[in-house]
Amino acid sequence: MSLARRAVLVHRTTEYEELVARHGTHGQAAFFLASRGRDIEEVAERHRRARGALAEVAAAVPLTWRQARVERADLDRFLFAPEDVVVVVGQDGLVANAAKYLSGQPVVGIDTDPGRNPGVLVRHRPADAAKLLPAAGTAGSVVDDLTMVEAVADDTQRLVALNEIYLGTPGHQTARYRLGLDGDGGAVEAQASSGVLVGTGTGATGWLRSVWQERGGALPLPSPTEDGLLWFVREAWPSPVTGTTLVAGRLRASASLSLTVESDHLIAFGDGIETDALQLTWGQTVRVGVCDRRLRLVG
Fold it and tell me: Can you say how many angstroms the Cα of residue 101 is from the centroid of all Cα atoms in its chain?
């Protein structure tokens, strides 16, 4: 017997909740913000909108469905099932946070603060949920299959991200490594830099775009559904033993970027979640390329 569909509502702790948890009471949080020139009412109002949106979406879940909620901090411990419809209620980055833990489930992005969020991934309003949820994942639903990026280390560690993967040091030290372009010319270069950023067309609306703009925008940005990636080396340093020739490029679906560690400790993390990172030591190699999984985002 097949299980009834389940709506998994993904949300995150609001700034107001974090402030009250840190300072103990609303009044103490208000005093803290006032001492820094801020009004707690603005923070509290955004909290009310976020919680109101979550309640509205929860009420729109079909009565025959099961329902679950998961906070952003618990995503790595939550078991998503094939029959789930994932409803992200929050900002664009929350969709990226959830994406790495999914395997084909349809995702509906609900914007809790229109005008404040770009709305690239949270494309819908809470009032749309009643119409969107029953159709999500069915044959008639409009879904964009967004390209994802993955990093695989030679000890089988694996990391998947929707926007970008960063490879470098966990602090602000110089990262030392050998960079190679497997399947795309075979060039190899020893480098010392602030790290390497490899991103998708979706990531081209965020961190990757800022690096792209600083470099003059010479390389064409991939589209979110394109099987290609864009990569940049951040602040490569020229020396007698390190070069600055391989600092940017595009990766086709069949190609990968390889990085062999020449530091005591480097990490790779995706979409800004540093707590869920690959730990890499001297001599290890990690390869980054297009992931065979896609994020199925309801349009």
Answer: 11
Given a cut of 90, is residue 185 above it in pLDDT? no
- The Cα–Cα gap between 50 and 11 comes to 9
The most distant pair of C-alpha atoms in the chain lies apart, rounded to whole Å, by 68
Chain-centre distance of CA 22, in angstroms?
Answer: 26
Contact between residue 261 and residue 280 where contact means Cβ atoms under 8 Å apart: yes
| Region for residue 272 given its phi and psi (left: phi exceeds 0; alpha: psi -120 to 50; beta: otherwise) | left
Polymer length of the chain: 299
Per-residue model confidence (pLDDT) at position 205: 87
Query: Does 140 or 171 have the greater pLDDT score?
Result: 171
98-119 burial, b for 16+ CB within 10 Å, e for fewer?
bbbbbeebbbbbbbbeeeebeb
In the 8-state DSSP scheme, what is residue 165? E
- The conformation of residue 74, written as its DSSP 8-state character, comes to G
pTM of the model as a whole: 0.89
Residue-wise pLDDT for 234-291, tens only, equals 999 999 999 999 999 999 988 899 999 999 999 999 998 888 899 999 999 999 999 9
| Positions of E strands within 55-163 | 66-71, 84-90, 106-111, 143-153, 158-161
Residue 259, Cβ density class (10 Å: 0-12 exposed, 13-18 middle, ≥19 buried): buried
What are the DSSP calls for 39-60, one per residue? -HHHHHHHHHHHHHHHHHHHHH
User: Which residues are 270's β-sheet partners?
Assistant: 165
Strand partners, 145: 296
Q: How far is CA 146 from CA 30, 222, 266, in A?
A: 41, 11, 28
User: How distant, in Å, are the alpha carbons of 71, 218, 230 from that of 13?
Assistant: 7, 39, 32
Whether 73 contacts 13, CB under 8 Å: yes
β-bridge mates for residue 159, sequence order: 151
